[in-house]
Structure formats: structure tokens, C-alpha cells
Amino acid sequence: MDTKYISKSLILLAAAVLVLSACHKKRDYDYSRWYVDPYAAEAGRPLKVMSFNIRSAHIDADENRWDNRRPAVKAMLKDRSPVLMGIQECNFIQRDHIFEDDPRYGAIGVGFGGPDEECEYSIIFYLKDSVEVLSYGTFYLTNTPDTPSRMGQTNHYRVCTWARVKLKSDGRQIYHFNTHLDTNESIQGPEMDVILPKIQSINTDNLPIFLTADWNCEESSTVFSGIKGFGFKSARLEAAVGDSYKTFNGFGKYTATLDHCWFKGFEGVNRFTTVREKYAGVPYISDHYPIEIVLKF
Known about the structure:
- The chain is an alpha+beta fold.
- It has two domains: 26 residues; 251 residues, Endonuclease/exonuclease/phosphatase (Deoxyribonuclease I, Chain A, 4-Layer Sandwich), CATH 3.60.10.
- 26% of the residues lie in helices and 29% in strands.
- It has six helices and 13 strands.
- The strands form two sheets. The protein has a seven-stranded mixed β-sheet with strand order 3-4-2-1-13-12-10.
- The N and C termini lie far apart (71 Å).
- About 9% of the residues have low confidence.
């Protein structure tokens, strides 16, 4: 075969490849027709919530003190923007700082020692533009839950704060309960024995409900046998997309999974995230990582 013919054919073939390649680069295929974002509003009307042990402001005097961590909390909230957030160990100073740093949020809760004591809260923050609070309350994890009280052998007063809220986007109503069990494992079961009957007496309309807390125990603990029998599920285990990172970091000294979310009445969980990102250049936002849950109606 004529070599000139071969060379000419190769040149034409190379030119054709370049043309096809150029055409391919110009055409940006849109795959969105076949892909459904599980976090999008169209996918089951998700609700983003969070649980976060913030580490009380009065504890640390070193690099982990609240003044150093405050910018990280501010940046985290701006980035994640949960609609509802259960915070544990929230000092009244931290509550006010969150109001200052992110005016989008309102909050409800009573200090551990009663409404007049400026101490720690198990507090619920909510986006004011997204949520209307219909009713709320706080009870103590004791045999006299409606009065400030403390169960024997506990390390602190222990409370549970709850809120019935209406989502302004579509009028749906839900309950959020937020608490903090004691570090004394022998007391955790009796504390749960207070929470479950209270849930039944408060949620008489059987609305969707979720519980956030620093539970001070692993999810496999027998402490949760009652709540499982009551029909609650673990957001971590049920999530379509999730992780199993330890939530208690101890500022780099210890690791354990103590922060969980239990839910009932929702269709499922789109996403469970242990928020381990560093914000504002701060190594640890707290001695616990926040957990973020996207619940699906």
C-alpha cells in the first residue's frame, strides 16, 4: 500500500480523534435526571438536628477554655445551621454568647438547680425563622420530677428539657427531648425510668419525636432496653449514610461513643454525621464532637 496514502489516512484519523475529543469536552452531561440527592428538600422533607455537649465554660483554664473555643462554635453553627439543637453542659454565659454570635437562634431550658440558678442547662436551641415553639418544659430525673431535686449518688442535678414545635415550612409538629444522664452507671437506669413515662404523658398525640443527649454510655448499653422496647430507633444505626466515629474525644486524651440520637415516628434517617471538622483553627470544639442527624418525614 502506498505510504503516502497511509500517512494521509493517519493524519485524517488523528484529526477526527481531536474533533471528537473537542466535542466531548464541550458537552457537559447532566446526570441530575438520574440522581436524587438524599439530603435535598424533595427527598422526604428532611429535618437537620444536632446533639452537642459544649463543655461548660467554668471548667477549663488552659487552651481548652471557652474563650478559645467560642469562635469555633460560632463557625460550626454558621456552617451546619441545625434547625433544632440539644446542648448539654451549657453554662448561662455560653447560652448568651450563642445568642450574640448567632442571633438566628432562640433557646429554652432551665438550669440544673432551678429557674433562678445560673448554672448548666440541658438546653434546646432552635432557628427562630424555621420553628415555632408551641409548648415546652423541663423535668428532673428523680422521683419528684416537677420540682428541683437530685437523685442520690448522682454527680450533678440531672434534667430533661422538651419542646413541642411546629415547622414553619409545612406546619408539621414534632417533639424534641434533650437530656444528660449521670456518669454514675448505676443511676442511669433509674434516670431512664423517669424519662420514658414522661414522654408518654407529654406526647399524647403520638407525634414524631427524637431524643438527644450525652448519655454517658455506649449505645449497646442495657440502659436503652426500655427505649428500644418503646419503639425508638438509633439514628446512627438507621442512617442511610453515616459513620461510627467516637464522639467523646477528651480533648485528645480519651475516646468513647457517648452521644446518641433516638427517634420514633419519622420515616428514617438520611444522614448521621459526627462533626469532626476543625473550625476557626481550634483543635477541639469541645471534649465531645457534635453529632448531626438528618431525619426524614
